[in-house]
Design goal:
mainly alpha; 20 helices
């Protein structure tokens, strides 16, 4: 078996650059679309399907992550990455063409076409994240690869900050006329992926070493089908619950029951097949269990907090969308700096546990500080709190995955890496859903309480979608905000809404703080193993449902 350090340094560097490009495309494919969606919905006449354009991508990419990871172990990273890029590019190109030719057989109108093509894009996108991390793990030993965590953190930060800006630029200024045909600006949001992906493909095909498969066997088709069905039902339930359907409605209950049955059947299948999608022996590995469990909780808390802070700034503080985006930049700066510095320190010391503990403590402090924000909190006051959160978050973005990769044999590297990415995406989805549910419930009670204290002001019940619409209207028509400020009744109403929403956000942050503390104690259980300078050799072939994972 070829060890990571035997490949030529020039080939490894070019492969690293190409993988970073792919990682950027995968991260930006979600953030760049957000600012274009209002125009897309308007052009394709699909307001009632608004959320599905994002949901389809997230569902498809999430459920495919463990499957791509296993396929990478069986057939090698290079062909799987190229396959994923090909599917991702096809989805991007087709999404850009959505609605160009009117209604189509089976696919229907432009919005349903977009949803279908976004799902195809997501299927390919699921391969990009997990295979990128696995390739770096193949090329670099655990101790050496720690220093690259800052690079991946930087790419994630760039995608989060500049993705919406790029999406807005193309939407507002990208419309062109070619041969008498108008190409709407938002279509370039999808087309822009193509040249960068093709450049990365060229580098991968020419310079990426031919990494051999790390395992042997056949595809577990039954397990793959069951995990797709089970987690699709589960993700739909937590996405729709409390928003489109009541939690106790037949639709949500049916989805949850279907998810439980499918995942139970998945476990039974994995216990019996010789080459499972998810080897159950991995769960005997203490590092695998504790690190992935902590990553799940951290992702849940992080996404719950950050997903609604821009809306808090726009509604609770009354700042424009641009300033709210710049304020969130403080979090990304802290995360990028922290992950870079910690990565080099981990490489230097060969230890990850002290930096996990330090990062977790700072993250808890940062989220604790966010519990004291309100309508009167200034932009700079909020920014330094977010900077603290970012500093604490930096180590957790990479060290949990590094610990897992360090604890498993090389032939399980792909499935172990994909499992970590999988639980992070599930945690992020659950965090947004739970935070949103707490936010909605708390907002309703606060509006009633403050409305009773101010009987002259009529405040109607508001949903998150109403607040999002209010924020968009204020940003698009600042003169309306000035007119409402001059009207005593409208001004008092807006103040009640701002106070109620700010209180609701703080309640959600307190919930995130509680689960973060639980994640911190779970993180303390992660074994403090030294990072290896060479890969772990594969053990002898195990029996059905096993993969020879060494408990650690």
């Amino acid at each position: 078996m070829q060890e990571p350090h035997v490949h030529p340094e020039a080939d490894r560097r070019l492969t690293l650059i190409s993988v970073l490009i792919i990682f950027l495309l995968s991260a930006m494919s979600q953030t760049v679309v957000a600012t274009a969606m209002p125009r897309i919905v308007s052009d394709l006449s699909g307001l009632h399907l608004y959320a599905w354009a994002t949901t389809a991508y997230l569902l498809a990419s999430t459920v495919m992550v463990p499957i791509w990871g296993k396929l990478g172990d069986l057939y090698g990273r290079k062909p799987i990455l190229l396959t994923g890029i090909g599917i991702f590019l096809a989805g991007s190109w087709l999404a850009g063409l959505a609605g160009e030719f009117g209604d189509l057989p089976l696919l229907g109108g432009g919005m349903t076409q977009l949803i279908t093509f976004r799902a195809i894009q997501g299927i390919g996108g699921g391969a990009l994240f997990t295979t990128a991390f696995a390739i770096i793990a193949d090329l670099y030993a655990p101790r050496e690869r720690a220093k690259f965590s800052g690079l991946f953190g930087s790419v994630f930060g760039v995608a989060s900050v500049f993705g919406p800006v790029i999406g807005g630029f193309f939407t507002d200024h990208g419309t062109v006329v070619f041969a008498g045909h108008v190409i709407e600006g938002w279509r370039w949001v999808f087309y822009v992926n193509i040249p960068f992906a093709l450049a990365a493909v060229a580098m991968i095909m020419i310079k990426m070493p031919a990494l051999p498969p790390r395992g042997a066997g056949t595809i577990d088709y039954a397990g793959a089908a069951l995990i797709v069905v089970g987690f699709t039902a589960f993700l739909l339930a937590i996405t729709w619950g409390g928003r489109d359907f009541a939690w106790g409605s037949p639709v949500i209950v049916g989805l949850l029951v279907g998810a439980a049955l499918s995942l139970s059947a998945f476990i039974l299948v994995e216990m019996r097949v010789r080459d499972p999608i998810l080897p159950l022996d991995l769960f005997r590995n203490r590092t695998f269990n504790t690190a992935n469990g902590a990553a799940f909780i951290y992702s849940m808390a992080f996404m719950g907090v950050t997903s609604f802070l821009p809306l808090y700034m726009q509604v609770g503080q009354g700042v424009p969308a641009t300033r709210s985006g710049l304020t969130m930049l403080a979090l990304m700066v802290g995360m990028i700096a922290s992950s870079t510095i910690n990565g080099h320190l981990v490489t230097h010391t060969g230890r990850y546990k002290p930096f996990m503990i330090g990062g977790g403590a700072v993250l808890i402090l940062g989220v604790f500080l966010l519990c004291f924000i309100g309508p009167e909190t200034g932009t700079l006051d909020l920014a330094w709190r977010l900077l603290v959160v970012g500093i604490g978050l930096g180590p957790g973005q990479s060290l949990f995955g590094l610990a897992v990769q360090n604890a498993v044999p090389m032939h399980q590297l792909g499935v172990a890496t994909s499992s970590g990415q999988f639980v992070r995406q599930i945690g992020s989805t659950m965090g947004v859903a739970l935070f949103g549910a707490i936010l909605t419930s708390s907002l309703a009670s606060e509006l009633v309480r403050l409305g009773q204290a101010n009987p002259a002001v009529q405040v109607q019940s508001l949903e998150l979608s109403d607040l999002q619409r209010m924020a968009m209207e204020r940003d698009a028509h600042p003169e309306l905000a000035e007119a409402r400020a001059a009207d005593p009744v409208a001004s008092a109403t807006d103040l009640i809404v701002a106070q109620s929403f700010s209180t609701a956000v703080v309640h959600g942050i307190i919930f995130s703080l509680v689960i973060l503390v639980g994640g911190f104690f779970l993180m303390l259980l992660v074994p403090a193993a030294p990072l290896r300078d060479a890969p772990m050799a594969p053990p002898a072939r195990a029996g059905p449902g096993q993969a020879g994972a060494t408990p650690s």
